[in-house]
Amino acid sequence: MGTHKKNLKEQSFGDFEAEKSVDIFKDGVRFPEGYRFCGGENHSDVIERVTNELKKIASEYPNANVLVVCHGSAIKHIVNALCPGFVDEKPNTASLVPNCSVTRMDCDTELKLIEKPHLFHGQQTLK
Fold this sequence. Notes:
Elements: H1 21-24, H2 43-60, H3 72-82, H4 93-96, E1 102-107, E2 111-118
């Protein structure tokens, strides 16, 4: 298997791509819809793109467990779509979706959240 799926890539931040968060979110400014205004993707674009790819993968491997590796903000937006309010639980993407965390979903016909992003017992993120 092990194929690269471009639809699982990180959210596009447009003109803010590769910029530091402290420079983008000066004075606490947030962009609740996303980054389409500056050539990137809105959160709804990411949700649609990643959800469609996950459904496609599920249809290619029916009745199988599949490991999908994805980017933090993409996971954050998918989980928030399935569990509204998730993005309000912690202050930033890294704390909501730690590196190497596991998020469990099921997809028979629709995507369902089984477990929010979490680290296994004893697993720590590097600081």
